[in-house]
Design brief:
The protein is of the alpha/beta class and 228 residues long. It has 2 domains: 127 residues, Rossmann fold (3-Layer(aba) Sandwich), CATH 3.40.50; 90 residues, Rossmann fold, CATH 3.40.50. It has 9 helices and 8 strands. The strands form 2 sheets. The chain has a 5-stranded parallel beta sheet. The longest helix has 17 residues. Bound molecules: cytidine-5'-monophosphate. The site of cytidine-5'-monophosphate has 13 residues, from helix 2, helix 4 and helix 8.
């Protein structure tokens, strides 16, 4: 991987703010971005819409291999799959639930591993997910493990959904977040865990700007040029 473009990984549990941080770093450095959770969400949404069993490895693998995926950071983050804008659709309840189910399947992960590596292009890549630093880009220049207490993560999600005008309950969100944490941390293949060489950043009680500042300081320490 000597000449491969550099990668910054942001891993952590649901609602820790990975997406926001990854986007801020990608914009700052003008690098490419990979929101790996979106890929699991696309596959999950597809399984739900087309009534595929989440255990039908061959069918899901075909979905992974055939999709054309484009991420953009400007003017706002969006995701286009096979020419269709799925930015909002993959955030729905079913896509969220099915994403965690297909993410347990070894064959789906193996097929997605290949697709995720394709995003590593010059001048660099910021990748967020659960196993970016441990499995997909083990040679990343910087690995950030972004955490926050479950209470804080549920509260953030609550505020975000309320702001969108959705009628949600904080206890329900807390419960489903705990379930997703357990699924992500306890699954046999690529569980969520802290890479030994990662910079652990607990965002509980920090503002977004404080988190970004700490992450950029860590990037500078790794020798990455951050000019403005
Ligand atoms: O990050 P996000 O919540 O969008 O991810 C959706 C689901 O996809 C997660 O709950 C997790 O089960 C799965 N996922 C994963 N590995 C990744 C990214 C996401 O297993 N690298």
């Amino acid at each position: 991987m000597g000449n491969a473009p550099p990668v910054i990984c942001v891993d952590g549990p649901s609602g820790s703010g990975k997406g926001t941080l990854a986007l801020a770093i990608a914009r700052k450095l003008d690098w490419n971005i990979l929101d790996s959770g979106s890929l699991y969400r696309i596959v999950g949404l597809h399984a739900y819409l087309f009534d595929l069993s989440v255990e039908d490895d061959e069918a899901l693998k075909q979905v992974v291999e055939s999709m054309d995926i484009q991420f953009a950071t400007e003017p706002s983050p969006n995701l286009v799959v096979n020419g269709k804008d799925l930015t909002e659709a993959i955030r729905g309840e079913e896509a969220t639930r099915y994403a965690s189910l297909v993410a347990k399947r070894e064959k789906v992960r193996a097929a997605l591993l290949i697709r995720q590596k394709e995003f590593r292009k010059p001048p660099g890549l910021v990748a967020d997910g659960r196993d970016m630093g441990t499995v997909v880009f083990p040679d990343a220049k910087l690995k950030i493990y972004l955490d926050a207490s479950p209470e804080e993560r549920a509260r953030r999600r609550y505020v975000e959904l309320k702001d969108k005008g959705l009628n949600v309950s904080l206890p329900d969100l807390f419960q489903s977040l705990k379930e997703r944490d357990a699924q992500d941390k306890n699954r046999r293949v690529s569980p969520l865990k802290v890479a030994p060489d990662s910079f652990v950043l607990d965002s509980t009680g920090l503002s977004i700007d404080e988190v970004i500042e700490k992450a950029l300081a860590a990037a500078k320490q790794k020798g990455l040029q951050i000019t403005n």
